[in-house]
Amino acid sequence: xxxxxxxxxxxxxxxxxxxxxxxxxxxxxxxxxxxxxxxxxxxxxxxxxxxxxxxxxxxxxxxxxxxxxxxxxxxxxxxxxxxxxxxxxxxxxxxxxxxxxxxxxxxxxxxxxxxxxxxxxxxxxxxxxxxxxxxxxxxxxxxxxxxxxxxxxxxxxxxxxxxxxxxxxxxxxxxxxxxxxxxxxxxxxxxxxxxxxxxxxxxxxxxxxxxxxxxxxxxxxxxxxxxxxxxxxxx
Amino acid sequence: xxxxxxxxxxxxxxxxxxxxxxxxxxxxxxxxxxxxxxxxxxxxxxxxxxxxxxxxxxxxxxxxxxxxxxxxxxxxxxxxxxxxxxxxxxxxxxxxxxxxxxxxxxxxxxxxxxxxxxxxxxxxxxxxxxxxxxxxxxxxxxxxxxxxxxxxxxxxxxxxxxxxxxxxxxxxxxxxxxxxxxxxxxxxxxxxxxxxxxxxxxxxxxxxxxxxxxxxxxxxxxxxxxxxxxxxxxxxxxxxxxxxxxxxxxxxxxxxxxxxxxxxxxxxxxxxxxxxxxxxxxxxxxxxxxxxx
Lengths: 235, 293
Hints:
The complex is a heterodimer. Chain A has helices spanning 42-50, 70-75, 93-100, 106-119, 121-125, 136-148, 166-181, 193-199, 217-221, 224-231; strands spanning 4-13, 16-26, 31-35, 56-61, 64-65, 78-81, 154-158, 185-190, 202-207, 210-216. By secondary structure, chain A is of the alpha/beta class. Chain A folds into two domains: 1-77 and 154-235, 3-Layer(aba) Sandwich (Rossmann fold); 88-151, no CATH class. In chain A, strands 6-7-8-3-9-10 form a six-stranded mixed beta sheet, sandwiched between helices. A four-stranded antiparallel beta sheet of chain A has the order 2-1-4-5, with helices on one face. In chain A, α3 (93-100) packs parallel to α6 (136-148). Helices cover 74% and strands 3% of the residues of chain B. Chain B is built from eleven helices and two strands; from the N terminus they run ααααββααααααα. A two-stranded antiparallel ribbon of chain B has the order 1-2. Chain B starts with a helix and ends in a 14-residue tail after the last helix.
Protein backbone atom coordinates (compact mmCIF):
# COMPACT_ATOMS: atom_id res chain seq x y z
CA UNK A 1 0.00 0.00 0.00
CA UNK A 2 1.30 3.41 -0.90
CA UNK A 3 1.48 6.18 1.68
CA UNK A 4 -0.80 8.40 -0.39
CA UNK A 5 -3.19 6.85 -2.90
CA UNK A 6 -5.09 9.06 -5.30
CA UNK A 7 -7.86 7.42 -7.29
CA UNK A 8 -9.98 8.94 -10.03
CA UNK A 9 -9.27 12.50 -8.88
CA UNK A 10 -10.99 15.31 -10.79
CA UNK A 11 -11.06 19.00 -10.00
CA UNK A 12 -13.05 21.65 -11.85
CA UNK A 13 -12.96 25.41 -11.65
CA UNK A 14 -16.46 26.23 -12.83
CA UNK A 15 -16.81 24.70 -16.30
CA UNK A 16 -13.06 24.19 -16.68
CA UNK A 17 -11.78 20.77 -15.73
CA UNK A 18 -8.25 21.34 -14.43
CA UNK A 19 -7.54 17.75 -13.43
CA UNK A 20 -9.22 14.79 -15.08
CA UNK A 21 -9.57 11.39 -13.33
CA UNK A 22 -6.04 10.96 -12.18
CA UNK A 23 -4.56 7.96 -10.35
CA UNK A 24 -1.36 8.50 -8.46
CA UNK A 25 0.68 6.86 -5.69
CA UNK A 26 3.19 8.44 -3.36
CA UNK A 27 5.38 5.89 -1.59
CA UNK A 28 6.83 6.20 1.87
CA UNK A 29 10.40 7.46 2.02
CA UNK A 30 10.49 8.46 -1.65
CA UNK A 31 10.59 11.62 -3.68
CA UNK A 32 7.67 11.59 -6.09
CA UNK A 33 7.65 14.33 -8.71
CA UNK A 34 4.90 15.79 -10.85
CA UNK A 35 6.26 17.66 -13.83
CA UNK A 36 4.44 19.50 -16.56
CA UNK A 37 4.15 22.91 -18.11
CA UNK A 38 2.29 25.93 -16.80
CA UNK A 39 -1.42 25.26 -16.37
CA UNK A 40 -1.09 21.47 -16.64
CA UNK A 41 -2.83 21.09 -13.27
CA UNK A 42 0.14 20.36 -11.01
CA UNK A 43 -0.72 22.87 -8.30
CA UNK A 44 -4.36 21.81 -8.48
CA UNK A 45 -3.41 18.26 -7.49
CA UNK A 46 -1.47 19.51 -4.47
CA UNK A 47 -4.31 21.81 -3.50
CA UNK A 48 -6.79 18.95 -3.81
CA UNK A 49 -4.65 16.87 -1.43
CA UNK A 50 -4.44 19.83 0.98
CA UNK A 51 -8.20 20.29 0.86
CA UNK A 52 -7.91 23.79 -0.56
CA UNK A 53 -10.02 23.07 -3.66
CA UNK A 54 -13.14 20.96 -3.99
CA UNK A 55 -12.53 17.61 -5.62
CA UNK A 56 -14.17 14.39 -6.69
CA UNK A 57 -12.54 11.00 -6.39
CA UNK A 58 -10.71 9.55 -3.43
CA UNK A 59 -7.47 10.30 -1.64
CA UNK A 60 -6.28 8.02 1.15
CA UNK A 61 -3.33 8.57 3.46
CA UNK A 62 -1.96 5.44 5.18
CA UNK A 63 -5.19 3.76 4.14
CA UNK A 64 -7.43 6.39 5.74
CA UNK A 65 -9.68 8.85 3.96
CA UNK A 66 -8.51 12.43 4.36
CA UNK A 67 -10.60 14.89 6.39
CA UNK A 68 -12.24 17.58 4.28
CA UNK A 69 -10.91 20.73 5.96
CA UNK A 70 -7.36 21.77 5.18
CA UNK A 71 -6.35 22.57 8.76
CA UNK A 72 -7.32 19.00 9.75
CA UNK A 73 -5.38 17.52 6.85
CA UNK A 74 -2.27 19.30 8.12
CA UNK A 75 -2.75 17.62 11.49
CA UNK A 76 -2.74 14.24 9.73
CA UNK A 77 0.85 14.94 8.67
CA UNK A 78 0.47 16.25 5.13
CA UNK A 79 2.10 19.66 4.87
CA UNK A 80 2.22 21.88 1.83
CA UNK A 81 4.94 24.41 1.06
CA UNK A 82 2.93 26.61 -1.29
CA UNK A 83 3.96 28.09 -4.59
CA UNK A 84 5.37 31.58 -4.22
CA UNK A 85 6.56 30.65 -0.70
CA UNK A 86 3.80 32.61 1.04
CA UNK A 87 5.88 33.44 4.06
CA UNK A 88 4.26 35.74 6.61
CA UNK A 89 5.87 39.09 5.82
CA UNK A 90 5.64 41.43 8.79
CA UNK A 91 6.39 38.61 11.21
CA UNK A 92 9.89 37.62 12.25
CA UNK A 93 11.65 34.56 10.83
CA UNK A 94 11.20 32.79 14.15
CA UNK A 95 7.48 33.62 14.33
CA UNK A 96 7.11 32.12 10.86
CA UNK A 97 8.74 28.94 12.10
CA UNK A 98 6.56 28.91 15.22
CA UNK A 99 3.52 29.05 12.96
CA UNK A 100 4.86 26.01 11.15
CA UNK A 101 4.84 24.26 14.51
CA UNK A 102 1.30 25.41 15.30
CA UNK A 103 0.05 21.81 15.32
CA UNK A 104 2.90 20.62 17.58
CA UNK A 105 3.00 20.77 21.35
CA UNK A 106 4.67 23.79 22.96
CA UNK A 107 7.16 21.48 24.65
CA UNK A 108 8.51 20.38 21.24
CA UNK A 109 9.00 23.92 19.94
CA UNK A 110 12.52 24.61 21.20
CA UNK A 111 13.90 21.33 19.88
CA UNK A 112 12.22 21.83 16.50
CA UNK A 113 13.64 25.35 16.21
CA UNK A 114 17.14 24.13 17.00
CA UNK A 115 16.86 21.39 14.39
CA UNK A 116 15.83 23.89 11.76
CA UNK A 117 18.57 26.37 12.67
CA UNK A 118 21.07 23.53 12.35
CA UNK A 119 19.66 22.63 8.94
CA UNK A 120 19.40 26.26 7.77
CA UNK A 121 22.02 28.33 9.67
CA UNK A 122 21.04 31.49 7.77
CA UNK A 123 17.58 31.35 9.36
CA UNK A 124 19.17 31.15 12.79
CA UNK A 125 21.22 34.25 12.07
CA UNK A 126 18.13 36.12 10.91
CA UNK A 127 15.65 34.76 13.46
CA UNK A 128 14.58 38.22 14.69
CA UNK A 129 14.45 39.80 11.24
CA UNK A 130 11.18 40.54 9.41
CA UNK A 131 10.70 37.56 7.10
CA UNK A 132 9.66 39.94 4.33
CA UNK A 133 13.18 41.35 4.18
CA UNK A 134 14.77 37.99 3.27
CA UNK A 135 15.97 37.33 -0.28
CA UNK A 136 13.96 35.02 -2.54
CA UNK A 137 16.22 32.05 -1.87
CA UNK A 138 16.15 32.63 1.87
CA UNK A 139 12.38 32.94 1.79
CA UNK A 140 12.19 29.58 0.01
CA UNK A 141 14.39 28.03 2.68
CA UNK A 142 12.17 29.58 5.33
CA UNK A 143 9.05 28.21 3.65
CA UNK A 144 10.53 24.70 3.51
CA UNK A 145 11.80 24.97 7.07
CA UNK A 146 8.40 26.22 8.23
CA UNK A 147 6.85 23.15 6.61
CA UNK A 148 9.30 20.85 8.41
CA UNK A 149 8.44 22.46 11.76
CA UNK A 150 5.15 20.57 11.68
CA UNK A 151 7.01 17.22 11.47
CA UNK A 152 5.25 16.14 8.28
CA UNK A 153 5.04 12.54 7.13
CA UNK A 154 4.50 13.87 3.64
CA UNK A 155 5.95 17.20 2.59
CA UNK A 156 4.51 18.66 -0.61
CA UNK A 157 6.63 21.26 -2.36
CA UNK A 158 5.00 23.41 -5.00
CA UNK A 159 7.51 24.90 -7.47
CA UNK A 160 10.29 25.43 -4.92
CA UNK A 161 12.76 26.56 -7.59
CA UNK A 162 10.49 29.16 -9.21
CA UNK A 163 12.12 32.54 -9.65
CA UNK A 164 15.41 31.60 -8.02
CA UNK A 165 18.94 32.03 -9.35
CA UNK A 166 20.47 28.78 -10.71
CA UNK A 167 22.96 28.46 -7.89
CA UNK A 168 20.17 28.78 -5.31
CA UNK A 169 18.07 26.28 -7.25
CA UNK A 170 20.86 23.73 -6.82
CA UNK A 171 20.84 24.33 -3.06
CA UNK A 172 17.08 23.91 -2.93
CA UNK A 173 17.27 20.54 -4.67
CA UNK A 174 20.11 19.41 -2.41
CA UNK A 175 17.98 20.35 0.57
CA UNK A 176 15.07 18.32 -0.75
CA UNK A 177 17.28 15.24 -1.07
CA UNK A 178 18.55 15.76 2.45
CA UNK A 179 15.00 15.96 3.80
CA UNK A 180 14.20 12.67 2.09
CA UNK A 181 17.29 11.05 3.61
CA UNK A 182 16.03 12.06 7.02
CA UNK A 183 12.92 10.00 6.40
CA UNK A 184 10.27 12.44 5.17
CA UNK A 185 8.32 11.44 2.08
CA UNK A 186 8.16 14.13 -0.56
CA UNK A 187 5.77 15.11 -3.31
CA UNK A 188 7.49 17.60 -5.56
CA UNK A 189 5.74 19.71 -8.18
CA UNK A 190 8.09 21.37 -10.63
CA UNK A 191 8.46 22.98 -14.03
CA UNK A 192 12.18 22.39 -13.75
CA UNK A 193 11.92 18.88 -15.20
CA UNK A 194 15.59 18.05 -15.45
CA UNK A 195 16.52 18.75 -11.85
CA UNK A 196 13.40 17.23 -10.36
CA UNK A 197 13.56 14.04 -12.46
CA UNK A 198 17.17 13.54 -11.45
CA UNK A 199 16.38 13.53 -7.75
CA UNK A 200 13.01 11.75 -7.85
CA UNK A 201 12.37 8.06 -7.33
CA UNK A 202 9.15 8.17 -9.28
CA UNK A 203 7.62 10.82 -11.47
CA UNK A 204 4.39 11.66 -13.26
CA UNK A 205 4.16 13.81 -16.37
CA UNK A 206 1.05 15.93 -16.48
CA UNK A 207 -0.46 17.54 -19.57
CA UNK A 208 -3.80 19.35 -19.70
CA UNK A 209 -4.95 17.77 -16.47
CA UNK A 210 -4.10 14.22 -17.46
CA UNK A 211 -1.16 11.97 -16.69
CA UNK A 212 0.51 11.15 -19.97
CA UNK A 213 3.46 9.26 -18.60
CA UNK A 214 4.89 7.88 -15.41
CA UNK A 215 7.99 6.02 -14.39
CA UNK A 216 11.24 6.15 -12.48
CA UNK A 217 12.83 9.58 -12.57
CA UNK A 218 15.99 8.23 -14.16
CA UNK A 219 14.04 6.46 -16.92
CA UNK A 220 12.00 9.53 -17.77
CA UNK A 221 15.20 11.56 -18.03
CA UNK A 222 16.23 9.25 -20.86
CA UNK A 223 12.81 9.16 -22.51
CA UNK A 224 12.85 10.60 -26.05
CA UNK A 225 9.46 12.33 -25.81
CA UNK A 226 10.22 13.85 -22.44
CA UNK A 227 13.54 15.14 -23.68
CA UNK A 228 11.79 16.76 -26.62
CA UNK A 229 8.93 18.30 -24.70
CA UNK A 230 10.48 19.28 -21.39
CA UNK A 231 14.23 19.13 -21.49
CA UNK A 232 15.00 20.79 -24.81
CA UNK A 233 16.07 18.70 -27.80
CA UNK A 234 19.80 18.89 -27.39
CA UNK A 235 21.33 17.77 -24.18
CA UNK B 1 -4.91 73.53 34.89
CA UNK B 2 -2.73 72.08 32.17
CA UNK B 3 -2.17 68.93 34.19
CA UNK B 4 -5.87 68.72 34.95
CA UNK B 5 -6.69 68.85 31.24
CA UNK B 6 -4.03 66.29 30.51
CA UNK B 7 -5.46 63.84 33.03
CA UNK B 8 -9.00 64.30 31.72
CA UNK B 9 -7.72 63.93 28.17
CA UNK B 10 -5.92 60.70 28.94
CA UNK B 11 -9.01 59.26 30.58
CA UNK B 12 -11.09 60.24 27.55
CA UNK B 13 -8.42 58.73 25.32
CA UNK B 14 -8.63 55.47 27.25
CA UNK B 15 -12.28 54.99 26.25
CA UNK B 16 -11.49 55.95 22.67
CA UNK B 17 -8.71 53.38 22.77
CA UNK B 18 -11.09 50.60 23.78
CA UNK B 19 -13.39 51.47 20.89
CA UNK B 20 -10.52 51.97 18.44
CA UNK B 21 -8.98 48.62 19.32
CA UNK B 22 -12.35 46.89 18.89
CA UNK B 23 -12.42 48.45 15.46
CA UNK B 24 -8.80 47.80 14.58
CA UNK B 25 -8.76 44.15 15.57
CA UNK B 26 -11.60 43.33 13.19
CA UNK B 27 -10.02 45.43 10.46
CA UNK B 28 -6.63 43.78 10.89
CA UNK B 29 -8.05 40.34 10.18
CA UNK B 30 -11.01 40.94 7.86
CA UNK B 31 -10.00 44.25 6.23
CA UNK B 32 -13.32 45.95 6.70
CA UNK B 33 -14.55 48.69 9.02
CA UNK B 34 -16.89 47.02 11.45
CA UNK B 35 -19.55 49.68 11.91
CA UNK B 36 -21.72 47.19 13.82
CA UNK B 37 -19.40 48.00 16.70
CA UNK B 38 -21.36 51.20 17.43
CA UNK B 39 -24.67 49.37 17.62
CA UNK B 40 -23.07 46.74 19.82
CA UNK B 41 -21.78 49.42 22.20
CA UNK B 42 -25.27 50.96 22.51
CA UNK B 43 -26.89 47.59 23.07
CA UNK B 44 -24.27 46.68 25.68
CA UNK B 45 -24.72 50.03 27.43
CA UNK B 46 -28.41 49.20 27.84
CA UNK B 47 -27.70 45.64 28.94
CA UNK B 48 -25.28 46.95 31.56
CA UNK B 49 -27.72 49.61 32.69
CA UNK B 50 -30.58 47.18 33.20
CA UNK B 51 -28.35 44.69 34.93
CA UNK B 52 -27.11 47.38 37.29
CA UNK B 53 -30.60 48.77 37.84
CA UNK B 54 -32.12 45.37 38.59
CA UNK B 55 -30.52 45.33 42.01
CA UNK B 56 -31.70 47.15 45.12
CA UNK B 57 -28.14 48.00 45.95
CA UNK B 58 -26.05 47.96 42.78
CA UNK B 59 -23.19 45.43 42.57
CA UNK B 60 -19.62 46.67 42.13
CA UNK B 61 -19.18 48.15 38.66
CA UNK B 62 -16.63 45.46 37.83
CA UNK B 63 -19.38 42.81 38.10
CA UNK B 64 -21.55 44.77 35.68
CA UNK B 65 -18.63 45.10 33.29
CA UNK B 66 -17.95 41.36 33.46
CA UNK B 67 -21.59 40.42 32.88
CA UNK B 68 -22.02 42.94 30.07
CA UNK B 69 -18.86 41.94 28.28
CA UNK B 70 -19.96 38.30 28.46
CA UNK B 71 -23.26 39.41 26.93
CA UNK B 72 -21.26 41.32 24.31
CA UNK B 73 -19.41 38.13 23.37
CA UNK B 74 -22.68 36.18 23.06
CA UNK B 75 -24.15 39.00 21.01
CA UNK B 76 -21.13 38.96 18.70
CA UNK B 77 -21.41 35.18 18.28
CA UNK B 78 -25.09 35.61 17.46
CA UNK B 79 -24.32 38.23 14.79
CA UNK B 80 -21.62 35.97 13.40
CA UNK B 81 -24.09 33.10 13.14
CA UNK B 82 -26.84 35.10 11.45
CA UNK B 83 -24.78 37.41 9.24
CA UNK B 84 -21.06 36.82 8.91
CA UNK B 85 -20.83 33.05 8.73
CA UNK B 86 -22.50 32.77 5.34
CA UNK B 87 -20.31 35.57 3.97
CA UNK B 88 -17.31 33.54 5.04
CA UNK B 89 -18.67 30.30 3.64
CA UNK B 90 -19.28 31.86 0.24
CA UNK B 91 -15.88 33.51 0.36
CA UNK B 92 -17.58 36.79 -0.54
CA UNK B 93 -15.52 39.97 -0.73
CA UNK B 94 -15.07 42.13 2.37
CA UNK B 95 -17.56 44.71 1.08
CA UNK B 96 -20.31 42.28 2.11
CA UNK B 97 -18.99 42.27 5.66
CA UNK B 98 -18.95 46.04 5.57
CA UNK B 99 -22.54 46.28 4.33
CA UNK B 100 -23.76 43.66 6.79
CA UNK B 101 -22.09 45.45 9.71
CA UNK B 102 -23.46 48.84 8.67
CA UNK B 103 -26.96 47.36 8.36
CA UNK B 104 -26.70 45.67 11.74
CA UNK B 105 -25.55 48.87 13.39
CA UNK B 106 -28.46 50.90 12.03
CA UNK B 107 -30.87 48.07 12.85
CA UNK B 108 -29.75 47.86 16.48
CA UNK B 109 -29.91 51.62 16.94
CA UNK B 110 -33.37 51.80 15.34
CA UNK B 111 -34.65 48.97 17.52
CA UNK B 112 -33.32 50.70 20.62
CA UNK B 113 -35.02 53.91 19.46
CA UNK B 114 -38.40 52.15 19.40
CA UNK B 115 -38.13 50.97 22.97
CA UNK B 116 -36.23 53.81 24.57
CA UNK B 117 -36.43 57.54 24.29
CA UNK B 118 -33.54 59.64 23.16
CA UNK B 119 -33.22 60.91 26.72
CA UNK B 120 -30.22 59.45 28.43
CA UNK B 121 -30.73 57.02 31.29
CA UNK B 122 -28.21 57.54 34.06
CA UNK B 123 -26.37 54.70 35.71
CA UNK B 124 -26.88 54.61 39.46
CA UNK B 125 -24.31 56.66 41.33
CA UNK B 126 -21.11 54.69 41.51
CA UNK B 127 -19.21 56.80 43.98
CA UNK B 128 -20.35 58.66 47.06
CA UNK B 129 -18.18 61.61 46.16
CA UNK B 130 -17.43 62.29 42.52
CA UNK B 131 -13.92 63.67 42.84
CA UNK B 132 -10.89 63.39 45.03
CA UNK B 133 -8.08 65.86 45.52
CA UNK B 134 -4.62 65.13 44.27
CA UNK B 135 -2.55 68.06 45.41
CA UNK B 136 -4.24 71.05 43.83
CA UNK B 137 -5.98 68.87 41.24
CA UNK B 138 -9.55 67.66 41.35
CA UNK B 139 -9.63 64.21 39.85
CA UNK B 140 -12.87 62.55 38.87
CA UNK B 141 -13.21 59.11 40.44
CA UNK B 142 -15.23 58.02 37.46
CA UNK B 143 -12.48 59.06 35.04
CA UNK B 144 -9.88 57.22 37.08
CA UNK B 145 -12.02 54.08 37.19
CA UNK B 146 -12.49 54.27 33.42
CA UNK B 147 -8.77 54.79 32.89
CA UNK B 148 -7.84 51.88 35.15
CA UNK B 149 -10.29 49.43 33.59
CA UNK B 150 -9.30 50.44 30.05
CA UNK B 151 -5.58 50.20 30.68
CA UNK B 152 -5.88 46.74 32.27
CA UNK B 153 -7.98 45.44 29.39
CA UNK B 154 -5.80 46.99 26.69
CA UNK B 155 -2.69 45.53 28.32
CA UNK B 156 -4.28 42.08 28.57
CA UNK B 157 -5.32 42.24 24.94
CA UNK B 158 -1.87 43.30 23.74
CA UNK B 159 -0.34 40.43 25.71
CA UNK B 160 -2.80 37.99 24.21
CA UNK B 161 -2.06 39.13 20.66
CA UNK B 162 1.70 39.57 20.95
CA UNK B 163 2.80 36.91 23.41
CA UNK B 164 0.61 33.84 23.02
CA UNK B 165 0.34 31.09 20.45
CA UNK B 166 -3.26 31.93 19.68
CA UNK B 167 -2.24 35.58 19.28
CA UNK B 168 0.40 34.56 16.77
CA UNK B 169 -2.29 32.64 14.89
CA UNK B 170 -4.43 35.80 14.87
CA UNK B 171 -1.55 37.79 13.39
CA UNK B 172 -0.96 35.09 10.79
CA UNK B 173 -4.62 35.02 9.73
CA UNK B 174 -4.48 38.83 9.49
CA UNK B 175 -1.61 38.52 7.02
CA UNK B 176 -2.93 35.59 5.01
CA UNK B 177 -5.90 33.41 6.02
CA UNK B 178 -5.33 30.85 3.27
CA UNK B 179 -1.68 30.22 4.09
CA UNK B 180 -2.64 30.09 7.78
CA UNK B 181 -4.84 27.09 7.04
CA UNK B 182 -1.78 25.33 5.62
CA UNK B 183 -0.18 25.77 9.06
CA UNK B 184 -3.10 23.84 10.58
CA UNK B 185 -4.77 26.99 11.89
CA UNK B 186 -8.56 26.98 11.81
CA UNK B 187 -8.94 30.42 10.20
CA UNK B 188 -12.71 30.36 10.62
CA UNK B 189 -12.38 29.79 14.37
CA UNK B 190 -9.85 32.62 14.60
CA UNK B 191 -12.31 34.96 12.89
CA UNK B 192 -15.02 33.95 15.36
CA UNK B 193 -12.52 34.65 18.15
CA UNK B 194 -11.88 38.10 16.70
CA UNK B 195 -15.58 38.92 16.64
CA UNK B 196 -15.84 37.66 20.22
CA UNK B 197 -13.02 39.91 21.33
CA UNK B 198 -14.70 42.84 19.57
CA UNK B 199 -17.95 41.93 21.35
CA UNK B 200 -16.13 41.79 24.67
CA UNK B 201 -14.62 45.23 24.06
CA UNK B 202 -18.03 46.59 23.04
CA UNK B 203 -19.38 45.31 26.36
CA UNK B 204 -16.67 47.01 28.38
CA UNK B 205 -16.84 50.28 26.48
CA UNK B 206 -20.66 50.22 26.57
CA UNK B 207 -20.68 50.17 30.36
CA UNK B 208 -17.89 52.73 30.71
CA UNK B 209 -19.47 55.12 28.21
CA UNK B 210 -22.87 54.62 29.81
CA UNK B 211 -21.42 55.55 33.19
CA UNK B 212 -19.78 58.66 31.80
CA UNK B 213 -22.35 59.97 29.35
CA UNK B 214 -25.60 58.22 30.26
CA UNK B 215 -27.32 55.54 28.17
CA UNK B 216 -29.18 56.41 24.95
CA UNK B 217 -29.65 54.64 21.61
CA UNK B 218 -27.19 56.77 19.64
CA UNK B 219 -24.46 56.50 22.26
CA UNK B 220 -22.50 53.82 20.42
CA UNK B 221 -22.77 55.43 17.00
CA UNK B 222 -21.61 58.79 18.32
CA UNK B 223 -18.66 57.39 20.19
CA UNK B 224 -17.76 54.86 17.54
CA UNK B 225 -16.90 57.71 15.20
CA UNK B 226 -14.16 58.73 17.64
CA UNK B 227 -12.88 55.18 17.83
CA UNK B 228 -12.97 54.94 14.06
CA UNK B 229 -11.01 58.17 13.65
CA UNK B 230 -8.46 56.99 16.20
CA UNK B 231 -8.02 53.64 14.48
CA UNK B 232 -7.63 55.44 11.16
CA UNK B 233 -5.07 57.91 12.48
CA UNK B 234 -3.29 55.01 14.15
CA UNK B 235 -3.12 53.09 10.90
CA UNK B 236 -6.09 50.86 10.16
CA UNK B 237 -5.54 47.41 11.54
CA UNK B 238 -2.67 48.31 13.85
CA UNK B 239 -3.62 47.79 17.49
CA UNK B 240 -0.66 49.66 18.93
CA UNK B 241 -1.22 52.56 16.53
CA UNK B 242 -4.91 52.72 17.38
CA UNK B 243 -4.19 52.89 21.10
CA UNK B 244 -1.56 55.60 20.70
CA UNK B 245 -3.80 57.64 18.40
CA UNK B 246 -6.78 57.29 20.74
CA UNK B 247 -4.86 58.75 23.67
CA UNK B 248 -3.49 61.57 21.51
CA UNK B 249 -6.99 62.28 20.20
CA UNK B 250 -8.44 62.34 23.72
CA UNK B 251 -5.85 64.82 24.94
CA UNK B 252 -6.12 67.06 21.88
CA UNK B 253 -9.92 67.14 22.17
CA UNK B 254 -9.73 68.06 25.83
CA UNK B 255 -7.35 70.94 25.19
CA UNK B 256 -9.32 72.14 22.17
CA UNK B 257 -12.56 72.10 24.11
CA UNK B 258 -10.91 74.14 26.84
CA UNK B 259 -9.46 76.66 24.43
CA UNK B 260 -12.13 76.97 21.76
CA UNK B 261 -15.29 75.41 23.19
CA UNK B 262 -17.01 72.09 22.68
CA UNK B 263 -18.96 73.18 19.61
CA UNK B 264 -15.99 73.22 17.26
CA UNK B 265 -14.32 70.08 18.67
CA UNK B 266 -15.92 67.61 16.23
CA UNK B 267 -14.87 69.88 13.35
CA UNK B 268 -11.30 69.84 14.61
CA UNK B 269 -11.41 66.04 14.96
CA UNK B 270 -12.56 65.50 11.40
CA UNK B 271 -10.10 68.01 10.00
CA UNK B 272 -7.39 66.14 11.84
CA UNK B 273 -8.57 62.91 10.26
CA UNK B 274 -8.61 64.49 6.80
CA UNK B 275 -5.11 65.84 7.33
CA UNK B 276 -3.94 62.36 8.16
CA UNK B 277 -5.67 60.93 5.11
CA UNK B 278 -3.90 63.46 2.90
CA UNK B 279 -0.49 63.53 4.48
CA UNK B 280 -0.04 60.13 6.04
CA UNK B 281 -2.79 57.76 4.87
CA UNK B 282 -1.01 54.77 6.35
CA UNK B 283 -1.45 56.28 9.82
CA UNK B 284 0.96 56.52 12.72
CA UNK B 285 1.88 52.84 12.62
CA UNK B 286 2.24 52.92 8.85
CA UNK B 287 0.84 49.49 8.09
CA UNK B 288 -2.19 50.41 6.05
CA UNK B 289 -0.44 50.91 2.74
CA UNK B 290 1.89 47.97 3.19
CA UNK B 291 0.43 45.43 0.81
CA UNK B 292 1.69 42.03 1.88
CA UNK B 293 3.50 40.06 -0.81
